[in-house]
Automatic annotation (TrEMBL):
Residues 1-14 have a biased composition (Basic residues). Pfam families: Pentapeptide (PF00805). SUPFAM superfamilies: Pentapeptide repeat-like. InterPro entries: 5peptide_repeat. Residues 1-20 are annotated as: Disordered. This is Pentapeptide repeat-containing protein.
């Protein structure tokens, strides 16, 4: 065996979700009923994450994908979602207040432009 071959790092073995080195269960980074403040999350994919009944404040999501993510009963204050995509999610009962919706597209409809035309702002 040559020296170069000995120095190669071992490949990481994928562990089942929630598994730790010692076999204990690891809690997911995001879970229900949490407070998230002053976070910067960029170019991430958040799939099947439960944010429900959480308060998210002054947090910036940049170019993220939210897929099958639950935001039921959550509050977002001073957050940014520039370049994000939300798919396969329920937005029932969602209320946007004092938000910049320029470029907001829902199912192919540019809601930001539509609101601009309706309100003249």
């Amino acid at each position: 065996m040559n020296a170069a071959r000995k120095l190669r790092p071992k490949r990481a073995v994928a562990k089942p979700r929630g598994a730790a080195k010692d076999g204990a269960t690891v809690q997911p980074l995001f879970q229900p009923n949490m407070l998230v403040a002053n976070a910067d999350i960029a170019s991430s994919t958040l799939t099947r994450i439960r944010h429900d009944h959480s308060v998210i404040s002054e947090t910036r999501y940049l170019n993220c994908l939210f897929s099958e993510t639950n935001f039921e009963g959550s509050s977002f204050q001073g957050c940014g979602f520039d370049g994000c995509v939300v798919e396969n999610a329920s937005l029932r009962g969602v209320e946007l207040r004092n938000c910049d919706v320029e470029g907001l597209v829902i199912d192919g409809i540019n809601v930001g432009e539509l609101l601009k035309q309706l309100t003249g702002r």
